[in-house]
Every structure is written in C-alpha cells, then in structure tokens.
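Hey everyone, long-time lurker, first post.

I ran two proteins through the pipeline my lab uses and got sequence/structure pairs for each. Pasting them in order. The first:
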Amino acid sequence: MTKKIIQEKLNLHPRNQHRLRYDFEILTQNFPDLKKFIFTNQHNIETVDFSNPDAVKALNKSLLITYYDIKNWDIPYNYLCPPIPGRVDYIHHVADLLAFSNNNIIPETENVVGLDIGVGANCIYPILGNSLYKWTFVGTDIDAKAIENCTKIIEENPKLIDAISLQQQLNSRYIFKDIILAEDKFAFTICNPPFHSSQEEATNSSIRKVNNLENTKTLNPVLNFGGQNSELWCQGGELAFITQMIYESVKYPKQVLWFTTLVSKNSNLSSIYKTLNKVNVAAVKTIDMAQGQKTSRIVAWTFLTELQQKNWEF
C-alpha cells in the first residue's frame, strides 16, 4: 500500500499548525456541520468550496474549536470571514518581532497587550493571539455592529472575558486618537487595513476572486469572505489609511513598542517607506507573507532605540 504524501505549505510560518492539509476527520468530529461542505476534488483531495461563504464559515468554526479552544463563534451575514491560516501567520510574525526586542525570547504572558485596529465582527486576531501566546488585546472598530458581535463572541467564550476589551472609534477620521490614552502601553498594534479605494473597486476585486476560485465567469458573485464597506475600502485605499496611521503614530512614540500593518499592494511600499523616513522612526522591518497564490507583507516600525526596546517591560 503506497503511503499518501501530504504536501507541506512551506510558505506559511514554521510555527503555523496549518502547514499541512486540513485533517477533515478531526475537524468534523469537533464540528459535524462541516461534513456537508466537504467533497473530493479532481486531484482526489478532500476540500471545501472556498467560493461558498457558508463552507468558509463552517471551516473557520471547526478550526477555532479544534485548535484554539473557542466553543462559540459566528459573524453576521456579509461581514468579513477571515482565512485563519493567514491570520495565524501575522500573529506568529508579531511574536518574532517582540522576541527581536526581548533577547530572542517570545514573551508569552497576559502582560503583553496588543491593539487591533479594525477588529471587525470576527475578533480573529485577539482570539488567536490569546490562544497562541496568552496575550491580551484591545480591539477597536468604527462599526457598532462589529463591536456588538465581538462582545457576543467574548461573552460566549468565558476565557476571553479578561483577555479582550473593545472600544468603538467614534470618529472615523482618526485611527489612534481617543483610543491610545495617556496611561496606555501597547507591545504592538496590528491592522488589516481597508484595501480598496472605492466600493466599485472592492466589488470588481471580489468578482475576480470568486471567478478564480470557481474557474467561471460571473458578474454577481456570492462573496466567500464577505466584508462591509469599512472593512473593504476607504477614501484613498490602503495607502491613505496606512499613511494616516504613520502620521498619528508619531504622537505615541513611547507608548507602543512596534506599530505594524499588513500591506497588500507591493507598489505602496516605496511611498510608505518615504513617510516613515519623514517621521524619523528608529527602525523599520518588512516581513514577507504568502498564502496560496496571494502574497502580502507586514510593515513594522518603532520610535524606540535598541536600548529602549530591550528595556521594554513585558
């Protein structure tokens, strides 16, 4: 009998437990509802239809139950349903960044406080960061319904009650203002910024994504990952959002160890580096990430010298 070769996803972080194919036997044991979405594709591999939003949500639920000790998780209709392996990668890379400032030791303690800008309705980064490294989080969003759903997730998973607090950003023009207070200290900020510059651009991108997944042509796709306007687009798109974030970060140079953000468009990097240079950051790091055919990167910056980083108390 020939042994089945399981290909490892080498583009994911070495500590990412989703580098191998999903173990649907274990996942369906923990969440039987997933079973109806599983099929065998033309390569004789078990998978789910990633263009089906219900399948993606069921897969997420099963992963959160199986690997992250989350018993109850759901999102409202048409809110962003994040692909968990990629979100896990961001958390692991942030852990490496903190280790860089901490004698190469990842601080695994509730004293590490992260700030999630745009926590969404899914609360995924705080859930993963707490499960993997015991970190605590403040999650912010301009969307009241997103904050309301995160509150429900936290209440239905008691282990999260002391680990995650939420705050609505009431002024959509700002990112950190009224969120980072004088007494606050954050080991890091984390952000998946709105990618597109208009509703039309967001819709066209979704059509392309679903057509690629289904290998078909449709002008009215069912969006597999969903997304509200504030999650998908803002005036000026990703570059405008990150530029605003950089300029605001200047006001909190000693209250945050590492500011970080995802950057989807490689073409935005040169402008981002110029802005960071203008505000005299002490250090900048760019971390490449990839999942499937999608490439992305994290840009991180700090205003603290290496000595100040070493003296940061976790």
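...and the second, right after it:
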Amino acid sequence: MLCGLSGGVDSSVVAALLYEAIGDQLVPVFVDNGLLRKGEREQVEEVFRINLRVPLVTVDAVDNFLDKLSGVDDPEKKRKIIGHTFIEEFEAEAKKHDGIKFLAQGTLYPDVIESISVNGPSEVIKSHHNVGGLPDWMDFELIEPLRELFKDEVRNLGRELGLPESMINRHPFPGPGLAIRIMGDVNRTDLDLLREADVILLDELKASGYYTRTWQAFAVLLNVKSVGVMGDNRTYDNTVCVRVVEAVDGMTATFAHLPHDLLERISRRIINEVNGINRVVYDISSKPPATIEWE
C-alpha cells in the first residue's frame, strides 16, 4: 500500500495508523512539490525518522509542479493541477514497488464538505486536491480512514498513536501549499518571498504563546504593490496579508484578536527583514462569509 504524505497532521496520522496495522507493507511517500514552507521537508523527514521510526520515501518533484503551474493564476485550476500532479507522482513511485494496489491519503470530512455536494443541494466552495476519487485509468483502490473525522478528532487519534505534540499541534496546512497563498501566478521568486514572511509570522506567534492559542496562521502574498519609504529611498514593493484565525473544527472561524504590539512586531520584522515587502495588512474577516484560505 502506498500512503501519500503532505507532512501535515492528517496524512501523518494515516501513515502512523496504517504502519501500526500492516507494518512494512506500507510505503509512505512524501512528495516535495516546491510549495512547502521554509524547512518543512527537513522537519517531516526528521519526524518520520526519529519520532515515528517509519521508513519514508521522499520524491523531489519541485520542477514538475512549478513547470505545470507556470502562468496559471486561477485558484481552481491551481488546485486541480496540483491534485493531478500528486497522483502522477504517486503512480510513478508505485511502479518502483511490487504489488501496490492501494493508495491511502488523509482526507477529512471538512475537505469533503467544501469540495462536493454532500446529502443535499450544497454548493461546491473550493476543490480539495485529495477529494473526488482517482482517475478511471488508475488501478489503485483509494483508502481514506479519516474521511468522516474532524481535525480535533484526528489530533486525538494522533496522540493515541504516539505522535509528538509538535506534529499534532501543527496548524493545518493545505495540500496545494503556498500556491493558494500567492494571488496570481506561482513562481520561485514569490515563493521564496512568501516563505520568509511566513516563518517570521510563525516565529513571533510561537514566542508570544499565540501559536497554540490559535487554529491557523499564515501570510498571503497579494501581488499588490504600493509606495513606501525605506531610509531615504522610495520603494515600490509587495504587500503581505497576515491571516490568523480561531476555530474548533475549521468549519467556522473568527479572526484572532491579537495584541497590537504583537501585530506591530510581526509587521516591523517582515518589512525590515524581507527584501521586497514594504506593507503588511491584517485580515479581520471571519468564516463565513470568508474562507480561511484566500484561494
């Protein structure tokens, strides 16, 4: 059985659960799609090697994903391209192993609700890369043991399986990664810029104790430029939006009422330390009507 890993809580719990059940018959595959946060690949590999002691296959697919996303700015097209490319990478890896008949992934109930109409006339909100089944031409049977669970239930299951709290308490991270946190075309320059801003935000939240008191936090590169002043020089650089929300299961959310001095510190550090950003704004919309992610 092949298990597709994103490095987040959901897919990691699936891998730990299945490894407990079938041992070495499981082949956990982590695909580096180039859309991860700073240092994320190394963190995932360390958790699986040291904490879970589960053998992990890492596939470097950065060029493949970024080539296919080049010039694409529509959010739904981004999501579908990423989903299809993940499946292609998993299929290619499966061919390297004998007898792979199943593909496991960490689909949750909120993913299903937002992606398809469930038991009624509900409207599709946005596609999730891991919802909707597999293409007809694939021979895998899909295994989704968490499909009817919410995030808090998955975290409790992770604790029962012995996953470290550092992984269990990680904020949710979308399968499409930073691609849906960049408004417009996805390219290496913008990805690097966003990674630097994002890691500053997370560092400040952890230092202040607000990381564990909030549901999700991230930066969004708006691809909107504005005039600024750095020293005696005029700048015309990017705007970053900071999004921090409080929630229980992710179905609804309210923006976090962070202290003004913390917001000021986050803004000051991003502007001073990330070359190419001269303005930071804070998202004060709740879900609904907004979604947590921007795309």
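Reply from user beta_strand_b:
Welcome! Quick read of the second one: The beta strands are 2-5, 27-32, 57-60, 102-104, 141-143, 216-230, 233-246, 254-255, 277-282. Confidence is low (pLDDT under 50) at residues 128-132.
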